[in-house]
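Support request from a user on the community tier.

User writes: "When I paste my structure tokens into the form, the page sometimes reloads and wipes my input. The last time it worked, I copied everything first. Here is what I submitted, just in case something in the input itself triggers the reload:"
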């Protein structure tokens, strides 16, 4: 997929970024200026983060200047994440970077939970709202077109993440403020400096790749 003058190709757990801004696509193919983002590593200077269901974002100093490419989390990984979080019907599940809404919709449909997502891509917001309505859970699902760094998710009992280590590190102070007993469940990357309660690895038939899921319960336990 091309966005912001860059071609993004995903192979397993690695996302390749080809800079095609200065020439035609064939130039990038034969002489690519390539950045390989092997999670959780992020190449310096690229400013790319993987967020919520896999939305790759390019952030500049201007908060409105953001490009997004959707890289979805497999459905069976979504289901495992929510099962590990032991979601209850009277709880709120918050997805930071909610993509096409698959975590939110699954939480509402399978567990009867209230689900709130924050997503900066307007098209994905529209898509996820439509899907929630089609699945009959739009009364439980709320998706806001908003940067999750500006959102208040402090009352959530479950928070789901699919972010780079760099972005998760920026969220740690806010995650620490969640009420005791809240669960944070992350796909692919851990919370720096915090020992997870469990680490689960699974191979998804959707992409034939191994996926790692981490879960924490607040208050956090420091890494030894």
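"...and here is what came back when it finally went through:"
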């Amino acid at each position: 997929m091309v966005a912001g003058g860059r071609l993004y190709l995903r192979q397993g757990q690695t996302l390749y970024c080809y800079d095609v801004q200065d020439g035609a696509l064939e130039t990038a193919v034969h002489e690519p200026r390539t950045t390989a983002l092997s999670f959780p590593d992020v190449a310096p200077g690229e400013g790319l983060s993987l967020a919520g269901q896999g939305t790759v974002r390019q952030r500049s100093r201007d908060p409105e200047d953001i490009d997004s490419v959707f890289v979805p989390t497999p459905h069976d990984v979504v289901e495992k994440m929510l099962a590990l979080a032991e979601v209850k019907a009277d709880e709120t599940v918050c997805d930071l970077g909610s993509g096409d809404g698959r975590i939110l919709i699954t939480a509402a449909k399978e567990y009867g939970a209230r689900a709130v997502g924050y997503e900066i891509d307007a098209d994905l917001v529209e898509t996820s709202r439509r899907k929630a309505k089609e699945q009959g859970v739009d009364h439980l699902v709320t998706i806001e077109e908003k940067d999750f760094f500006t959102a208040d998710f402090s009352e959530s009992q479950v928070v789901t993440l699919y972010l780079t280590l760099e972005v998760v590190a920026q969220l740690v102070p806010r995650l620490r403020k969640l009420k005791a007993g809240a669960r944070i469940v992350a796909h692919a990357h851990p919370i720096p400096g915090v020992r997870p309660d469990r680490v689960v690895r699974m191979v998804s038939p959707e992409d034939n790749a191994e996926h790692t899921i981490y879960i924490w319960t607040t208050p956090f336990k420091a890494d030894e």
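Agent notes: The reload is a front-end session timeout and is unrelated to the input. Residues 122-134 form the longest helix (13 residues). Confidence is low (pLDDT under 50) at residues 1-6, 20-68. Escalated to web team.
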